[in-house]
Every structure is written in C-alpha cells, then in structure tokens.
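Hi Y.,

Following your request, here is the sequence exactly as I used it, all 441 residues.
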Amino acid sequence: MTTPLHPVSRRRLLGLGLGAAAGLALAGCGDDDAGPSTAGNGGKDYTGPKVSLNLWNGFTGGDGDIFKKLVDQFNAEHANIALTVATYKWEDYYAKLPGAVSSGNGPDIAVMHMDQLATFAARKVIQPVDDVAGALGLTESDFAATVWKGGMYGGKRYGIPLDMHPVGLYYNKALFKQAGLDPQKPPADRAEMEAALTALKGAGIQGFWISPFQFTGGMTGYSLIYQFGGSLYNDDATKAAFNSDPAVEAVSWLAKLVADGHSPANVGQDADYLALKSGKNAFNVNGIWQVNDLKKSPDVQWGVAPVPQIGTKKAVWANSHNFTVVQQKKTDANKVAGAKVFINWLSQHSLDWAAGGQVPARRSVLDDPKFGELKEVGTLAAELPDAAFPPAVPGVGDVTALFYTAFNEAILGKKPVKQALDDGVAKADKLLEDNRKKYGS
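Below is the corresponding structure, written out as tokens. Let me know if you'd prefer a different format.
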C-alpha cells in the first residue's frame, strides 16, 4: 500500500480528500465532549507504562520515507512509546477512517488535511487537542492565520499544523533552450507566460498542457480564480462563487490555451506532469511534493518557480497537513498522553520533515538558516503569503469536488465555460445547504 502506481498517482486526492464526507456515518464513539482534555500534560512528556500506538497517514511517496525515518527516531528516543505507522492512499484513507473508528479499530493518531478537520470533528472521529497547543506554547502568530484557524471547530482545536504545501510552476529547461528562451528566467506574469508560449509554439512545442482533472489542471484553475479576484466560496462558505465574472475569466484563459494549440485537447490524468519529465511539455503547475520526485530523475533539466501572476494579484492553491488524536470507543488516557507526546515531538522536528518536500507550518522553522538550504522548497515557500487555502467547514471537500467537475467539463469543451460553472455552483449551493442540515451548522 505504500508504493504508488507512478510518481504522481499518490497525490490525486491529496488536496481535498474528495469523497471523504460522502456517506460518512456518525462515528458514535466517546462522549459528547469528544474525549478527555486532561490526559497527560499536553505532550510535554510521558512517564506512564509502555503504550503501543498506531498512526495512519497518506504519505505514500518520498515524503513517506522521510516520515518513517522520523518515526524510527522517535521510537528510539522514547522507550515507553512504540509507534506503528500504516500508510494508505489518501482517497482510501478518508473513506476507511470513520468505519475503522466506529468499529473500534481506528488509529490513535491520524494525519489529516486542514479542510477535512471540521468534517471529522463534527462526526466525533477526532478529539480536541487544545492542551497540545498549550504545551507547545503555540499561538496564531506562529502560523499563517488561515492554517491556525483551520484547526478550530466549535470553539475547540482539533489539529496541530505540521506543514503547508502550495503548488508551483515546474518548467523544462531543455525545451526553453530549444525555443530560444532563457532557462534561468521562468515567466512571472501573464505577458511573459504568453510570450513564452508563443515562442514554444513557434518551435513546434505545445508548452502548457492543461489537465481537465483536479491534479493538476483543476488546482491551476483554482489558483487563477483567486488571481483574477474571485473565490470558490463567499466569506463564510455558505454559498459557492466559482461562477463569478473573475472565475469565468480565469477558466476561460486556460480553456483558450487548449483552443489555441498550446495544449492537447484531452490531457489524460497525470499526463501533463509525465510530459514535462519526458521533454514534451514546458510548463506544469504541480505540488511542492514533486520536488523530490524530480530530483530522482537526473536526466531531466528542470526548474521550479512561483506560479506566474496571470490575473490582477498573486494567489496560489495550498493546503496543510495536521496531526489529530483519534476518538476511541473506550478512552485509554495513557495512549492519549503518548499520542500527544509524538505530536509535540514531530512539531518540534518539522525542519527535518521539510526534507520530505513540505513547507514547515511554524514561522520559527521557516526562519531557520537550515531551511534556507532547501532551495526548491524555499522557492515555493515564498508563495505562502498569497496562499488560497480551502475553507475549513464540514463537508467542504465534496462541495469543492463539484468545482473540479465543472472545470473538467469546461476544459474538455463539454459545456461553455460559463454554463459549466453555473451548473456546478447550482449543485454546490444545494450540497452546502444539505451539509448545514447534516452537520448542524
């Protein structure tokens, strides 16, 4: 379960855990307070009897290797805590977790994306970790505000942020040279991008393959909607907004690249990234996690840069991994205390985690000179002030999936852009209303 079918498949649902809320039943475990908040001392240390803990995650690629090394280090340093890791593809992970918890076979610790926290908190699958934040001395000033607030639900904290992962612009330097472009100067704005695409087309190269799938065309479209001044939702995520004039303009710009021959008309899943590696595609907007994969391909001449500003402002899709403590049918205070020790420990070792191709969530780590040595990761870390994180409301992953479906229809030409987005918003608003009834918010 830890080996991906190919380098990018492990990430197909990383961004939003699509389908996580579909058919999700109440976990039905623990009390209404979702577990004790006094087990241990918030992760500062653990002096109780030896406990065995299970941790679930979706780190199936190179980041998984780094993660397992860190777990081994933790186990070596903590004789009274034995941590075992289970790794699943994200799409399986979110579907599997609620049933496992309900049957009493869930993990003790779960890694979860920021936009999934509210869903699983509402379903009492995870329990509050306010005391861990207190033990670490963490406050909003330590993080990007959206990431810190994204861990809250119902006035309680359910997630401790581990990292942030934006998308960036990967480019093929060999194709730049072939088209007479400077391989040290990737495009930074719309004019430069369009000029580069014209030069590439003149050299017989379709320079920017636009995938109709979430990975990664949909995430490109998501980024550009915010760049053009739009958003996927209104301020409190009670209404969808991805059919606004700015959203239509953003998606139309990408659709026109296909119409103008800068991209094949029907790009397969992951084909945009594979074409970049094989020297057929000059540009690919993809996640920061691809840095380590490309480093495994020494024959590929590549670079990475922030996503160009195509619209009126800078903006880029990003998400965040969080640690959570899972609710159990019968609470074991020692296990809860041990789980919090691990979360505390790894949060303090997030610079080591950055080697897995993630941006540490804590500002203090970002300022560490050692982080500056991670050149490619640092390049994309610079985007984070402009990050457009998904909203942290229950069930939002399934709603955002409707945007990706609408984007797919628009890019494939199944519907005019405006109609595709209008149809998607109508469905999204209905689902948002259903979610408010389902989750009581």
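The mean pLDDT is 89.

Thanks again,
Q.
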